[in-house]
């Protein structure tokens, strides 16, 4: 049997060229099928009933001389699948005229499951032609067979049993095929759900997705894509490598297939995954892939406008985003690239004006894994006209607060170093200092915001404050109009004891810093130099390895300090090379000269302060009446303003303590 299509006045036509003239027309959508009664009636109880009813009406016609048959137009419902009605009189007259012209009945099937493509396969099956089934075609064909009542009881080896066997043996046993079948259920959704096809597809997807090990694959969440390159390993380019690449490709494809589903069905799949306690990594990977497919511009590396005419509208994107956010697992993800994706979702949520609940969930999720973020992730532009700054500083402050809260919750089980520092906290320290240096140049950044973010981290988070000093220096350079009081408050976020010698040297010559900060820096710089000199002297005076096999612990420790200052790295228990003694003595002399230079600079500053004090006192004496014995000296306020008493003991290396004016979160 062969079929051909040709255009008619009513659209396309499908003919069965068996050598016998067709004796019935069946119209489905815009396609008219010219068929024979017997093959259809032998397989479909519904068609048998409709044709029989039509023939009965044809013979009982009131005017049999002018019409050979009546046309029965059947308006079929999706839910009931039964029942018929005769169209209005005008339509009936047109059909009767058509019957007079053609000489055979015409049946119209409205809202047929799977449209004309499915009925074409039904017609081929009725004529005994072999049909090729796939996951996409089997579902609408199964619904069409149910609609036409092509049961096993009516005819052996009928279409319902044939499609059921195919679904059970070829579709439900494959993850990708189950996803394709589920996508096909969308066009015949009510009937597919009533037949249980949708539920079986979802159960198959969930059960087979639970066996996927995402740790073997780089996709879909890693931007680089692909799995590990085994060809770089000796013997790695083998059958196992080819098998893993093939599995990797299959994993990519089923994620992409899942992203093709409509949002309602995709939501149902995700809820089923969560109810079955599926791996959170698998769920997150599904959500990430779906978001990348339907929400453009989530990742900054892919912000080209979508050329597809079916791109989701703004409201649809908002609905997709809120659905994805609400289904994200709250626990910390083991997928490192998820953090960048979450920041992309957060930026999109702000642009689309998503709900507060949606944005708060994203901020908390990001805060739980902030140590995996990069500086580029934190640079979220201020999309609201209420924010004057270029980047959203309040957002970063909230995320940091969530991170510290989550850090406290898992502190009992988290990995902590011997000094009490958490590795995650140390990573976030560098991240926040980098962010402060980046936003410090913003002319609209208020000193209060800069200060609050700088002190948000606890004291033990920073090993050294060089990054914080850099941010402070950039801020003072970009905001020369700030008052001395604000400068002192901003500089108070630093701990001068945590500055390295390089930072101390730079700060001592920095004219932008207030005088009080410079004095503190000079003091601690002098103290570090003296400690380094003392360590070098002790190391130089210690016996050589030939004289003693066990160097004194104190000498070894002080030598390490000196070498660190000079840029060399040694282990604490290593023996000292005798060939370094001469070099060490020369370095000791250089340190002595640096010490003298530093002492000279400190004395010069003290003299300048003393001269300022005398000039101020003279001005007060000339411009104001003499003070009484009970009056407080005017110079006291000036001394308080500069934060020091202009005594040489302040910069003395023997000073035991220095007042810390900072206020931090502990």
Tell me the β content.
Answer: under 5%
Largest sheet: number of strands, sense, barrel closure: 6 strands, mixed
Give the total of beta strands.
Answer: 6
Helix content: 40-55%
Number of helices: 26
* Termini gap: 85 Å
Question: What's the Cα radius of gyration?
Answer: 41 Å
User: Which word captures the global form?
Assistant: elongated
Strand order of the biggest β-sheet: 1-2-4-3-6-5
Structural class assignment: mainly alpha
Determine the mean pLDDT. Answer: 75
- Which spans of ≥5 residues are poorly predicted at pLDDT below 50? 1-10, 62-92, 95-100, 217-248, 546-576, 626-666
Keywords: Coiled coil, Ubl conjugation pathway
Coiled coil: 588-615
Domain BTB: 22-135
Biased composition (Acidic residues): 86-100
Could you please describe the fold and organization of this structure?
The protein contains 26 helices and six strands. With 666 residues, it is mainly alpha-helical.
In short:
By secondary structure, the chain is mainly alpha-helical.
């Amino acid at each position: 049997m062969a079929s051909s299509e040709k255009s008619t006045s009513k659209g396309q036509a499908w003919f069965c060229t068996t050598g016998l003239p067709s004796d019935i027309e069946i119209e489905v959508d815009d396609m008219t099928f010219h068929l024979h009664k017997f093959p259809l009636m032998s397989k479909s109880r519904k068609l048998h009933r409709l044709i029989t009813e039509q023939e009965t009406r044809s013979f009982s016609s009131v005017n049999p001389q002018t019409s050979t048959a009546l046309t029965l137009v059947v308006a079929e419902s999706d839910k009931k699948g039964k029942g018929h009605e005769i169209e209005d009189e005008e339509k009936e007259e047109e059909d009767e005229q058509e019957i007079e012209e053609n000489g055979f009945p015409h049946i119209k099937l409205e809202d047929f499951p799977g449209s004309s493509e499915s009925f074409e396969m039904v017609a081929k099956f009725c004529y005994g032609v072999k049909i090729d089934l796939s996951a996409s075609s089997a579902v609408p064909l199964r619904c069409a067979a149910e609609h036409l009542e092509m049961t096993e009881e009516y005819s052996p080896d009928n279409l319902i049993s044939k499609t059921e066997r195919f679904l059970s043996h070829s579709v439900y046993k494959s993850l990708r095929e189950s996803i394709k079948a589920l996508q096909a259920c969308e066009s015949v959704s009510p009937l597919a759900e009533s037949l249980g096809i949708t539920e079986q597809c979802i159960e198959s997807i969930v059960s087979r997705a639970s066996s996927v090990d995402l740790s073997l694959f780089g996709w879909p969440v890693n931007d680089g894509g692909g799995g590990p390159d085994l060809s770089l390993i000796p013997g790695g380019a083998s059958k196992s490598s080819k098998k893993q690449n093939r599995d990797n490709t299959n994993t990519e494809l089923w994620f992409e297939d899942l992203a093709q589903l409509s949002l309602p069905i995709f939501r149902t799949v995700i809820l089923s995954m969560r109810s079955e306690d599926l791996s959170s990594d698998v769920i997150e990977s599904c959500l990430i892939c779906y978001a990348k497919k339907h929400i453009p511009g989530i990742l900054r590396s892919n912000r080209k406008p979508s050329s597809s005419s079916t791109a989701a509208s703004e409201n649809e994107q908002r609905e997709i985003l809120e659905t994805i956010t609400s289904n994200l697992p709250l626990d910390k993800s083991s997928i490192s690239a998820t953090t960048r994706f979450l920041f992309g979702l957060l930026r999109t949520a702000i642009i689309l004006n998503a709900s507060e609940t949606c944005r708060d969930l994203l901020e908390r999720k990001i805060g739980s894994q902030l140590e995996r973020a990069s500086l580029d992730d934190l640079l979220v532009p201020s999309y609201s006209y209420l924010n004057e700054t270029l980047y959203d500083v309040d957002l970063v402050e909230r995320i940091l607060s969530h991170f510290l809260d989550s850090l406290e919750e898992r502190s009992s089980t988290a990995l902590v170093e011997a000094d009490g520092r958490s590795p995650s906290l140390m990573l976030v320290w560098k991240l926040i200092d980098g962010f402060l240096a980046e936003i410090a140049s913003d002319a609209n950044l208020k000193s209060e915001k800069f200060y609050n973010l700088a002190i948000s981290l606890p004291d033990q988070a920073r090993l050294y404050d060089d990054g914080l000093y850099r941010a402070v220096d950039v801020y003072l350079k970009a905001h020369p109009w700030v008052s001395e009081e604000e400068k002192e408050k901003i500089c108070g976020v630093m701990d001068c004891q945590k500055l390295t010698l390089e930072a101390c040297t730079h700060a001592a010559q920095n004219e932008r810093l207030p005088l009080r900060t410079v004095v503190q820096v000079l003091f601690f710089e002098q103290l570090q130099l003296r400690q380094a000199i003392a360590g070098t002297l002790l190391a130089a005076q210690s016996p050589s390895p030939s004289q003693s096999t066990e160097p004194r612990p104190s000498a070894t420790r002080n030598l390490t300090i000196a070498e660190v200052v000079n840029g060399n790295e040694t282990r604490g228990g290593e023996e000292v090379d005798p060939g370094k003694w001469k070099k060490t003595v020369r370095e000791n002399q250089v340190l002595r000269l640096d010490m003298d230079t530093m002492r000279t600079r400190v004395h010069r500053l003290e003299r300048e302060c003393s001269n300022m004090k005398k000039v101020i006192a003279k001005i007060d004496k000339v411009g104001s009446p003499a003070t009484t014995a009970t009056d407080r000296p005017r110079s006291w306020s000036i001394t308080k303003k500069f934060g020091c008493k202009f005594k040489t003991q302040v910069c003395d290396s023997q000073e035991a303590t220095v007042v810390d004016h900072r206020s931090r979160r502990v």
